[in-house]
Design a protein that fits this description.
The complex is a heterodimer of chains A (664) and B (100). Chain A has 664 residues and is mainly alpha-helical. Chain A contains 25 helices and 2 strands. With 100 residues, chain B is an all-alpha fold. Chain B has one domain: Helix Hairpins, CATH 1.10.287.3510. Chain B is elongated. The mean pLDDT of chain B is 90. The chains are: A mainly alpha (664), B mainly alpha (100). The interface between A and B is medium-sized, with 11 and 13 residues.
Chain lengths: 664, 100
């Protein structure tokens, strides 16, 4: 089965080629959607086969490399089109193909009747292919193809409604921000390649070879430089401070895109990349601290913004940024497996929520369209009371919300609690731990608050949609609700594979599963870990209870403000108008970036255009032409048109030449 | 032949007269006749040198030149008739369209 790993990215590629080239002719939506969904589902089946085989093997044999063909061999440099199958990539391909299949299926229903249906499925397949290349690549260059590929596809998918200017702008923003990050990735790659090559004559970009040679890396120094560069790449892809602003704007794309890109796949690329190179990252204590701090800061920062947004998808977008912050926090405190665990549970519950919000928007849009109203179908202020008309959507959404809020025993509880526990108890960051933990805990409280705010505004209370069209609200078709139910179920039970040891009911499958991948990193980490990193079980139980209590507090505040005492939000806004305005406008980060980067770039572009191009470049070109014209203006008078003038010059010429030969 | 220089001088004078005529005259027929004069001056040079050197090549050249001159006369006069039909003049001052 391992030998067939190349089939996994191949199937979506075939789907892309079929739908991309012939989709316009096929026209039939069922066929196009069927092809797209079938292709990714076949990848899922192959992934399952690989996972099954891997489970059957002893842990030390769970690494396999498949060289498909030699790609670039040039002097010392060697890059093959090759795939790496190990427990980490097995988890990733399961998440990508599994959640991806459900999203494809959902899209058949959601995108029904949209113009360019075939285009959408072609992009989705291409996106999945790029993501699978990213997680399967056995060297940095193959990973980079996928890395760039998902960036490109996110541009295409976010700008799917390209006739809308805001969608086009959002696509561009995502692409440019990702490119900034990609530059960091490249620099990191060059640094590592150069260092290994020039110091130890190991010219490689292959993960396995780097891992084998990683004991040569120093602690700090060049590793800090390289890993910080990689981390810049990760912040771009995974929407962390400072490169996070593209993600909320990316909500311009169709909702399944948000679910695919911003829940299950692309944004997790940065987390995956750090996990893949954990043995390099751990060698730099400074980078680990930066990762942890940026993660925690992003978690709380995005969570605060999420509390004041009214667009249902925007709330989810900020919650995604915030949850990604948790994953980076986990990576930064050396709890790599916990980061991957949260990545997985987040893929389940966030995909479910995005798809659920899509179901709500679908229904709202349908009803509003029916009544020829132009109210915003995504604005939660127009919703309310939808739990009665959309019971399946409501239940799945509610379950996922409990999961993200971290309520026992839903999946998010286990992963988030593990992260918070590791933030508190990890041996790397000393006194910073308490701050990291505190920030994470407050962010978790905010998360519970804004997610329940969303649920209460959307599904509870009075229905605020225009009464004329109320009767047109309805539950979505099965093709939409089936993925919701599957994801809802996963969001409920997905956490049990990573149950903490103190609970003891189940062994911690995921941690053991990922052990072979991360054990080297943990070994390197012990070199500078502080002594006495052992905490009692009672403390772990206590913090666990505390994190649930924090979530419940968040839920209670939301309940008070948005169900029991519905005047409270308005009063709060009136009491702190400046605070509300700042949060509502996302702390003016977009404006700040416009001021710091965008406008200076624009001004510089204007200068290059008006100052350099028009004056200097055009000046040189036109100047040469003008000089030639001036001279010819003088000399053209020699062309008199009279024969005897020409004859005279001929004679003169002959005389001169003869004279030269005679008198020389 | 003892007096080669005399022949060459006469030839040079004829050539110069022809050249000056070509450059100064406006009437196309006169210019044409001056060109003939130049050709014949050259012919004279050829003949004299041929005789002086005892070589027949020069005389062969003269036959060629006379043939070409005859053809040239036919074409030239035809051009002039065509020109006269257009402009009612054979003055070269009137043929000045090919200029800036």
């Amino acid at each position: 089965m391992f030998d067939n790993v190349w089939l996994i990215p191949l199937f979506p590629l075939i789907g892309f080629l079929i739908n991309g080239f012939f989709g316009k002719k096929i026209k039939n939506e069922a066929v196009i959607g069927g092809i797209g969904t079938l292709m990714i589902f076949m990848s899922f089946i192959v992934s399952c086969g690989i996972l099954m085989q891997m489970i059957g093997l002893p842990p030390e044999q769970r690494v396999f490399e498949k060289v498909l063909f030699p790609w670039i061999h040039c002097g010392n440099f060697k890059a093959d089109m090759a795939f790496l199958v190990d427990p980490l990539s097995a988890v990733m391909i399961m998440v990508v193909t599994g959640v991806g299949s459900l999203i494809h299926l959902y899209s058949i229903g959601y995108m029904h009747g949209e113009e360019g249906f075939y285009r959408f499925f072609a992009y989705l397949n291409l996106f999945c292919m790029a993501m699978l290349l990213l997680v399967l690549g056995n060297n940095m260059l193959v990973m980079f193809i996928g890395w760039e590929g998902v960036g490109l596809c996110s541009y295409l998918l976010i700008g799917y409604y390209f006739h809308k200017k805001s969608a086009g702008d959002a696509g561009k923003k995502a692409f440019v921000m990702n490119r900034v990050g990609d530059f960091g990735f490249l620099l990191g790659m060059f640094t590592l390649y150069w260092w290994f090559g020039s110091n130890h004559n190991i010219w490689t970009i292959n993960f396995t070879e780097i891992k084998a040679a990683s004991h040569l890396l120093p602690y700090g120094g060049v590793v800090t430089v390289a890993t910080l560069c990689f981390f810049v790449g990760a912040t771009g892809k995974s929407a962390q401070i400072p490169l996070f602003t593209w993600l909320p704007d990316a909500m311009e794309g169709p909702t399944p895109v948000s679910a695919l890109i911003h829940a299950a796949t692309m944004v997790t690329a940065g987390v995956y990349m750090i996990g893949r190179m954990s043995f390099v990252f751990i060698k730099s204590p400074d980078t680990m601290m930066v990762v942890a701090v940026v993660g925690a800061a992003t978690a709380i920062f995005a969570a605060t913004i999420g509390t004041a947004q009214n667009d249902i998808k925007r709330v989810l977008a900020y919650s995604t940024v915030s949850q990604l912050g948790f994953m980076f926090l986990a990576m930064g405190v050396g709890a790599f497996w916990a980061g991957i665990f949260h990545l997985m549970t987040h893929a389940f519950f966030k995909a479910c929520m995005f798809l659920g919000s899509g179901s709500v928007i679908h229904s709202m849009h349908h009803a509003l369209h029916h009544g020829h109203l132009h109210d915003d179908a995504q604005d939660m202020r127009n919703m309310g009371g939808l739990r009665k008309v959309m019971p399946i959507t409501f239940i799945t959404f509610f379950v996922s919300t409990l999961a993200i809020a971290g309520i026992f025993p839903f999946s998010g509880f286990f992963s988030k609690d593990e992260i918070l526990w590791k933030a508190f108890s990890n041996p790397y960051h000393g006194n910073l731990n308490i701050i990291l933990w505190g920030t994470g805990a407050i962010a978790a409280c905010f998360t519970a608050f804004y997610m329940f705010r969303l649920v209460f505004m959307t599904f509870f209370g009075e229905c605020r949609i225009n009464p004329k069209v109320k009767s047109h609200l309805h539950e979505s078709p099965l093709v939409i609700t089936i993925p919701l139910m599957v994801l809802g179920a996963l969001a409920t039970v997905g956490g049990f594979i990573g149950m903490p040891k103190v609970m003891g009911a189940l062994p911690n499958y995921l941690e053991h599963w990922l052990d072979p991948v991360f054990e080297l990193a943990n070994e390197f980490g012990t070199k500078y870990a502080h002594e006495g990193g052992h905490h009692s079980h009672a403390l772990e139980w206590g913090l666990m209870g505390l994190s649930i209590a924090i979530a419940v507090v968040g839920i209670m505040i939301a309940l008070t403000m948005y169900v029991k005492n519905t005047g409270a939000p308005a009063r709060f806004t009136a009491t702190f108008p400046a605070l509300h305005r700042a949060v509502y406008n996302k702390w003016y980060i977009d404006e700040l970036y416009d001021f710091l980067f965008v406008n200076p770039c624009k001004a510089f572009g204007q200068f290059l255009w008006k100052g350099f191009d028009v004056v200097v470049v055009d000046g040189i070109v036109n100047g040469v032409a003008n000089v030639v014209m001036g001279f010819s203006g003088i000399f053209r008078y020699m062309q008199s048109g009279y024969i005897y003038n020409y004859a005279f010059s001929m004679v003169l010429g002959v005389v001169v030449i003869l004279g030269y030969y005679i008198f020389k | 032949m003892e007096n080669l220089n005399g022949y060459l001088i006469v030839s040079a004078i004829l050539f110069a007269i022809g050249t000056i005529g070509v450059l100064t005259r406006k009437n196309a027929i006169v210019i044409f006749m001056c060109i003939e004069l130049m050709l014949n001056a050259v012919n004279l040079t050829f003949i004299s040198l041929s005789r002086h050197l005892g070589h027949l090549d020069g005389q062969i050249f003269v036959i060629f030149i006379m043939t070409v001159a005859a053809a040239e006369a036919a074409v030239g006069l035809a051009l002039m008739i065509a020109f006269y039909n257009n402009k009612e003049s054979i003055d070269v001052e009137d043929v000045n369209l090919m200029k800036w």
